[in-house]
Amino acid sequence: MLLQNAPSHTDVPSSEETPRSTTPETTEQPMPLPNSPLLTTGSLISDNGQYVIQCMTIIGQIEGHDVLSPRHKTTKYEHVIPQIIAAEQSTSVEGLLVILHTDGGDVEAGLAIAELLAGMKKPVVSLVLGGGHSIGVPIAVAAKRSFVARSASMTIHPVRMSGTLLGVPQAFDYFQRMQQRITDFVTAHSRITAERYNQLSLNTNELVMDIGTILDGKSAVQEGLIDRLGTLSDAVTALYHLIDKIHAHER
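Request: output the structure for the sequence above.
Response:
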């Protein structure tokens, strides 16, 4: 017998009877961060202070013509050189702060970076944190003002070469000429003498399996390599002071 009041199977249940969807609500996913100079090259332009300054980092090994293993922290000279040129030509950037934590690397690439920094008209201040070893020394002294943290160190040693080396007089003459280029640059941009720099470089009494000298922050200042002991605030204050001088001269 058919019941007249029985609901049809096609009837739609009321809102109270409608089962909740088990499908999770879609949430807007955050957009991925764009490729910025901070992520790709460790460079940052800061415009929140008294002046607009650019911060550039020199970390790990300075990579030259040979690409190093991905396991190594590296600073690529093809990244750094355009940054320096851009900072010099920028109408907004008024100074450059170079942060060093490097264990050296390619000699000619390091000298190229140092020469560009030394040739800038805009104020450049360097700060050695952790280490400013080997070819990092010319880069540190290339700035118009150089600072080193008390806990940092700087290693001075002769030029080294990896790979096949011919044991002929021409090879050793090349080493001497390369070392002379480094010595000339360092002594021209710091207070250390060439004689003292060579003494530190050829020291045989400090390193167990090598020759050279490790200077802590205080010793680096005493030897005349670095201008002053200091930290971030000291370096930024010095950079602002150099910019102030330029503005005063322009008035």
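The chain has one domain: 38-250.
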